[in-house]
Every structure is written in C-alpha cells, then in structure tokens.
Amino acid sequence: xxxxxxxxxxxxxxxxxxxxxxxxxxxxxxxxxxxxxxxxxxxxxxxxxxxxxxxxxxxxxxxxxxxxxxxxxxxxxxxxxxxxxxxxxxxxxxxxxxxxxxxxxxxxxxxxxxxxxxxxxxxxxxxxxxxxxxxxxxxxxxxxxxxxxxxxxxxxxxxxxxxxxxxxxxxxxxxxxxxxxxxxxxxxxxxxxxxxxxxxxxxxxxxxxxxxxxxxxxxxxxxxxxxxxxxxxxxxxxxxxxxxxxxxxxxxxxxxxxxxxxxxxxxxxxxxxxxxxxxxxxxxxxxxxxxxxxxxxxxxxxxxxxxxxxxxxxxxxxxxx
Length: 321
Fold this sequence. Notes:
Elements (H helix, E strand, L loop, with lengths): L15 H8 L14 H9 L4 H17 L7 H11 L2 E2 L4 H6 L4 E2 L3 E5 L6 H16 L2 E6 L6 H10 L9 H11 E5 L3 H21 L4 E7 L2 H11 L1 H21 L2 E6 L1 E3 L5 E3 L2 H5 L4 E7 L5 E8 L8 E5 L3
Helix pairs in contact: 6-7, 7-8, 9-11, 10-11
C-alpha cells in the first residue's frame, strides 16, 4: 500500500490538508488506517474547520482499503503456491542451511538476533553474495549503519567454489556485484519511503520481466525502530508495525526472501532477549539467535521461532576473516 501523498492525483480528496491532518495522528500511509482508531479520527475531524471534506477523505481511504482486500485462498491453493513459488535459497553458510533444511524460504521474513559481534552482518553479506552468484537474481541490501562491505562480498565470492562458472573470476565478480544494490537509510521514515518505492518497482519489474529480486536485507531494522519506540509511544509502535507489515507483504506477494537483523537487550534475570518487544515478535516468520565463541571464527545459531520446526534446535557455523 502506498503513502497517502501518492494518492492525491487519483483521489483529490486525499489532498495536502487531509495528509497533514492524518500525519498529526501518526497516519502516513494507507495501511496506517488499519491500526488506527477510526472513531477517534472521525471525532477529531469534527473539530476541524474542513470537517466535512476530511470525513469524505477518510471514507475515500476506507474504500481504497476495501478494494485491496486479498481474495480468500483454499488450503490447496496455499500449498501449491508454497511448492511452486516459495523456493528455498541457500545462505552459503552450511550450518544455517542444515538447521533450516536448506536455507532462507522465499515469502518469509527471517530475523537474525544477537549481540555485537555475533555474526549477523557477516551472515547477511554471505547470503547476499551466495544468492546473487548461484541464483542469478538481484539482491537489495538496505544498510542502516554503514555495515555493508563490498570488500567482504568480494572475499565471500572468491571462497564460494562453483566449477559450473566458465567465465574469468573478474567477470563473475563484476556480475555479482552489479546484482547487489545497496541503499543507505538512517531513519525509519526513509526506510518506509524506500520500502514503498521498492513495492512499486517490483510491480513494474513483473510487467517488464527484468532481473527478479530474490533477497531483501535490512541490516539492521532495530537501529531505526528503537529510537522511535521509547519517545513516541503508540506512534512509534505504529511505525514499527508499518515496517513489519510492508516487509511481510513484499516477501509474500513477490516471492522474496527477506532477511533482517535485530540486537538483544537485557531481559528477565539478565538473560538477553530480542529487542523491539512483543509487538514486533509476530513479524518475522523465522527468528534465529546468533552467538560467537570468544576469540574465534566459530558461531552458534539456534531457532527461537519457526513455522514448522521446534524452537531450541541449534547448529554451529564458521565465518572466516
């Protein structure tokens, strides 16, 4: 779903005055209406000088939502979609692949949780390089803290053995690096804007048949959301839910694997737990906890949440410097 400002040309009621009114209530996009108390919104509109037009705008957005409802699908249709369109993509990390029975599944959001340094960014870079090389698709890497390293990508590519490639190594590297598109964003509003733009671009991609996006990485999602949670109250949670909703929608509707990272905070009894709280807990389909053996290249990964596997399963993996 689009930002409200993108609807103005097609729907004149959604004008700048309506957008400002909505923004004052923490509503920036169409999906924000889904998590807002509409009775309070209408009541607030009653006190504005342009109340009639504002209420007409609210009704207009609700009609847009009604037209965007997804059709009901039978269990058989969902099974066929999973088998035909939701493929598994190898991460390039043997331990994680074994634990997840192959790797990252298209259509799902997978979250890597762990303290720094626990290997979260390194797994993201390894997955990006492996998927770009072995599946011939595009990778979108959303970098929120200058974590992206083209040098590390090149090193990973050099270590991925594949005798099927007959091209010179330099040409292979150039092709892979050209398939990985990195975007730097430094606040949650830029992230939402980028995700909306990506959604629009993916619709155009399906029409033109251009190189399909297979993986979207957000490293890290918590660094953008945490600052708005503590100070913004319900508005911050609404922004967080909007980000999560968009990521899940992008994954499911476009058959993309989404990989995000999250840090840990102190929990009960001093035991670390994933940041972003209970409201975010339901967003990722798969949640993995990473840790690193002290002063070594050995890492541990365990399942915290998975739709078809028991939590608590663990594996080890190695990422060489």
